[in-house]
Design brief:
163 residues, mainly alpha, 4 helices
Length: 163
Amino acid sequence: MFNALPHTDPEAVAHVIQVALTPVFLLTGIAGLLAVFATRLGRVADRVDRLAERWHESEDDDELLRKLLFLKKRTYVLDVAVVLGALAGVAICAAALTLFLGAMRNQLGAELLFALFGLCLICTLGALSAFCTEMIMANMSVRREVSESSRKTSVGAGTVGKL
C-alpha cells in the first residue's frame, strides 16, 4: 500500500501531519469533559452507596428512596454525556484520519511515519470506544445497586414501586 506512494521531502510530510493534527486539539477538550463525566459518575456511585446503607438501616424511608431514584436518573444522563463525548472524540479522530489519508493518497511518502501516525489515530479511536463501553458498564452497576437496594426494602415494607 505504501510502496505506491511517491517520495516527498520531510517538510511536506510535516505539513500534512500538522494539518491532520489540528482537529485533534479539540480532542484534548473532549478528554477533559470525559474526565469530568467520570468524576461525576464516581460521586454518584459514592452517594448511592451511602444512601443504600442508610436505607437498609431504616428500611422505610421514602425520602431516601426518592434520592436513590434521582441518582438513578443522573446515571442515565451521565450515560448520554459519556456516549456523546466519546462519539465526538471518535469523530475528531476520524476527521484527522480522513485528512491524513486524503493527503497520503495525493502525494506523500515517508511510509513509516505515515504508518505510525495512522496507527496512533486508529488506536485512539479504539481507546475512546472502550472508554465509552466501560463507563456504560459502570453506570449499569450503579443502577443495579439502586434496584437491588429498593427490592430488598420493598419486599418487607411494600412501599416501593418498581425502579
